[in-house]
Design a protein that fits this description.
By secondary structure, this protein is α/β, with parallel strands linked by helices. The chain contains 15 helices and 19 strands. Helix 1 packs parallel to helix 15, helix 3 runs antiparallel to helix 7 and helix 10 crosses helix 13.
């Protein structure tokens, strides 16, 4: 008996750690054979790759200091790039148009000057938001294309509350300056991105992980909330007094009995992306030129590419380098064969001039069913129905997929802490 936590990702580890700080033990059950969830990593021939790509830019001293105590970090300037029709532009593209042709810059600037004038409350969806922010030409050729690649849906399908400060809205002066000369100013929403010097991204949780009781290879198949009993695929059972879950909401609802039709329906309508990770290791030290970059060309399946070797030299053998590409699809889409995705990614990155095929000495592709949350127009209604029901049957849901929220690393960590502290107040 006691507190059970489902999932050993950042939110689950945070919850376990903060319970332990208060003298309360918990048991974490993890489906995989190692801890970390999407913050975990894997190693092939000395090349370490994270499961999806992560940095931290925690704004509060408590989290920053705890992460730093776990593992000293590199503070990388938040300088990234964009690839668009053969051109390389600093990020954000709307502030750095200088490399483009004169004709295209004219179209973008005309569109920006003549962009629709609407108040926020008049905007019906993300497509409207993009046109109002950037004008038709830029919106249609940059973020529209990227939305299809990253979110897997048309921008008109998305609402806008999730955007926040994630996308920069320039002034006319900034657009004009950036069209004449490459800008030194960093317009990103944070000045630096931090990454552990050793051990991959999950190392920021090393201190929190210490002493936690994590049971591996424990895939949950059923939860009896009346008997307070969790059943696992291996046939074992676990009793609980309190249950905290970081499992994706649609998966969690399927594990429960006698769920009201309204809740089942709401859970089935929660949209998300799935993703492939293509991880490449090279026999040269100089393949990676950008810490990360975005790709707008729609014939290239990859939407983002990062360099593990630039994040930390500890991620590769001496004299080598690496890249990792992310390819996303909406859960409502058909998922292409992984071999086709791998072939497209390598072929297109070669065409972009990043490396030659003979340079590749490690190649790997892995699939994650849950990559990110899709913010369609009904997300808030459906999410509220599901979370309210879970609360009514004594399940505390945490983290990106447990709260069904666009959470950065520090936000998922804070969510695990908050739930732990709330539980302690009620005992």
């Amino acid at each position: 008996m006691g507190t059970i936590i489902l999932g050993s990702g950042i939110a689950g580890v945070s919850a376990g750690y903060h319970l332990k700080l208060a003298g309360e033990n918990s048991t974490i059950y993890e489906r995989d054979d190692d801890w970390g969830g999407l913050c975990g990593n894997f190693t092939i021939d000395g090349f370490r790759f994270d499961r999806f790509v992560h940095f931290t830019f925690a704004p509060d001293d408590y989290t920053k200091n705890l992460f730093e105590e776990s593992s000293p970090t590199y503070a990388h300037p938040s300088v990234s790039s964009n690839y668009y029709n053969g051109y390389w532009l600093k990020h954000p593209a709307q502030n750095n148009l200088a490399p483009l042709s004169v004709d295209e810059k004219v179209e973008i600037i005309k569109g920006f000057v003549n962009r629709p004038k609407k108040n926020i409350d008049e905007l019906e969806n993300y497509e409207d938001w993009l046109r109002v922010q950037y004008g038709d030409y830029f919106a249609e050729n940059f973020p529209f294309k990227y939305t299809r690649k990253y979110w897997g849906v048309e921008p008109a399908k998305l609402e806008t509350k999730w955007v926040g400060n994630r996308m920069y809205s320039p002034s006319l002066d900034e657009v004009l300056r950036g069209s004449y000369a490459v800008q030194d100013t960093n317009f990103y929403y944070t000045s630096h991105m931090k990454y552990p010097k050793k051990g991959g991204f999950r190392s920021i949780l090393n201190k929190c992980r210490e002493g936690l009781d994590i049971k591996f290879n424990k895939e949950v198949v059923h939860i009896d909330t009346k008997s307070k009993l969790v059943s696992f695929k291996d046939g074992s059972l676990a009793k609980y007094d309190r249950l905290i879950s970081s499992l994706p909401l649609p998966e969690l609802i399927r594990m429960l009995d006698n769920v009201p039709c309204e809740v089942n329906d709401a859970a089935s309508k929660l949209m998300h992306t799935s993703g492939y990770m293509v991880s490449l290791g090279f026999n040269r030290p100089d393949v990676a030129k950008h810490l990360w970059f975005y790709i707008y060309d729609e014939d290239i399946l990859a939407s983002r590419v990062y360099s593990p070797s630039l994040k930390s030299a500890d991620n590769v053998p001496a004299g080598k380098s690496s890249l990792q590409a992310e390819i996303f699809f909406a859960n409502t889409s058909s998922i292409p064969d992984k071999n086709l995705v791998l072939e497209n990614t390598i072929e297109k990155l070669v065409e972009m001039g990043l490396f030659e095929k003979k340079d590749v000495i490690v190649k790997d592709i892995r699939f994650e069913k849950y990559a990110n949350i899709i913010f369609d127009k009904d997300i808030y209604k459906n999410r509220a129905i599901v979370l309210e029901y879970l609360g009514s049957i004594g399940i505390e849901s945490i983290g990106r997929f447990g709260k069904w929220e666009y959470m950065w690393t520090h936000q998922a960590f804070a969510d695990g802490r908050k739930v732990a502290e709330c539980l302690l107040k009620t005992t």
